[in-house]
Amino acid sequence: MRFIKGLLVVLAFVIGILIVIPLVVILMIYSPNEELPDDYKYIEESSLLNIEEYFRDFDFGSLDDIRIGEMEINTVIDTYLEYEEIDNEDIDIHYIYVDLKENQFDIVAHLTISEVMEFPMKIKVTSDVKYSDDVLYIEIKKIKAGLVTIPNWITRFALRTNDIESPYLNIDRLEIVLDTNELNPYSDFVEVKTILIDDDSLHVKIGLTEILNDSINSVITPTVETAKDTIEEMYGRLTDDEKKSADVILDFIDENPDLNVYNLDIEQAKKVSEEFMNLSSEAQDTIIDNIQKSLDPEEMSELKKIIEDLMR
Fold it and tell me: For residue 137, is pLDDT > 90?
């Protein structure tokens, strides 16, 4: 009798534990009244109709370092949500935002699962980002539901159970693998040098491929030399204002004897272009005519073909 009594006590304890543990987990996952943090409230609801205007005025950085800020990423996400592009009949998404960090980003969402008694829950996915040999690796490091960290084996099981498949997704490693050459329609001309994340922006650094760089440089070298010789020859006939512009152009050429598109300072190049436009139309025509005479017709034809292919 004492044995049976002890057994019943043990069974009662085990049953209690089996009831209490799931209840505690549910309470830790349950996330009611989770508001979007103020740091991620960027635009008024009514201004979503003007999203094109918002991006038209946005500075994406330089030509070789395209910067996509955290604010811009979250504005796009918010717009998709507002217009119900992210839709699932079983899940009501209240908000999603991305928090960028050093070579890492968090995706945070608050949602309600209608199939489970309108259960509100906050999900946070932490991912590491690495770029190597033209391949971008996004590794899922941790998923939290409320206060509970979901074990990776449960995440793998859920992905497989729901038949989630993609040629870019490695479920065993919980990793998304993207070959930038495959995704880049202009990979023959422009290549991705690196992709990195800092505290507020995604940076995509690009550069010309070797074949396009060589073709352009074969034209740039004689162009620069001819422009310099022509300006120096006509310098005495220029007005004082034109001489100031000519000095800027000549200084730029002298400071960049081995002019290379990889090392070109975009802002400095724009300044030179502006100074060129300050020269008289006669001076401009003389420089352009001399440049055209100095260029190899075959090299110009090859460069023209490359640019036409690029613009298709």
Answer: yes
